[in-house]
Amino acid sequence: MRIGVALPLEAPVAELLELAGEAERLGYDAVWCNDDRLQHDVVAMLAAIAQRTRRVLLGPGVTNPYSRHAALIATAVATLDELSGGRARVGLGAGGTNHRALGVRREAPAAALREAVAVIRGLLAGERVTVEGRVVHAHEARLDFVPSRADLPVFIGARGPRVLELAGEVADGVIVGNIATQAGWSYALARVEAGARGAGRDPASVEVCAWLYTCVAEDPEAARDAIRPMVGTSLITSRPILAELEVEMPSAFAAAMERADWSLDRDVVGEAARTLPVEVIDAFGLAGTPEDCRARLGGLLDAFPQISEVAIVPFPGAGQDTLDVITRFIDEVAPRTVASGGPV
Is the pTM here over 0.70, yes or no? Predict the structure, then answer.
């Protein structure tokens, strides 16, 4: 079991570097960096973090083949792997939060990710790659340097059925994004396993990362308030699968979003998310007292031993900072067998 932290890249660079260093000191095994909206650049931040750390695994979690060409993702992670002494991983997803700003259309996400994986794996293997896909195109592309290794791990982040199945089919690991209930996990793992078996793979060969919006605080209401806006975004993007997650769309939230034409604008979603009931927040994140979070996470890990990594996306509540959430999670919530300063 690994414990990871995923850093949203909105804070000042110096603060982000300090957080990454503190995460390693506290015993985290991995640092992921979000490639979201128009935040600090994920490639530059990971390179800087590689120089500040010695042990933690590093990678974008997740980047996407719409706003970054798959060949450039390959060059970036191969460079990061060299800089970090073989600690790089790559997390791929379909993205969405920055597409409007970039004028990008999110089409055929499963096809885009399949094509991106083919380009990235081919380039890392030293091949000359040509792909004429539905989304990704490359013509006789080849790295102009020799990567440190060809088998750099590729993870796919997903919540929808087709991309979960794709992860089981082609990826080294799956990042199950923002699902915090046993019903949701039963659905997600069934789809991953179906993809793996359809490709003739052992489902146990696919690493499984639980990716959770997290706030650990003494005041459970303040903790839930900290993750409300992110839960709102997940609720919007999960509309096609709410039945599988056994989550009911709250009428007040739906009415507010209908008035805004279901915009993903941060302020719009944040305002609508004020109406979300506790059970919906708990369906998409881990927020509450240390005792509550420990019990809920322990229940998931007991029910789904396939989970090999827990990665938190920390959000501070009132009176907290991000370091406080990171510290309290590993000291008071993370399974004791892994909160010990190194990979297990």
Answer: yes
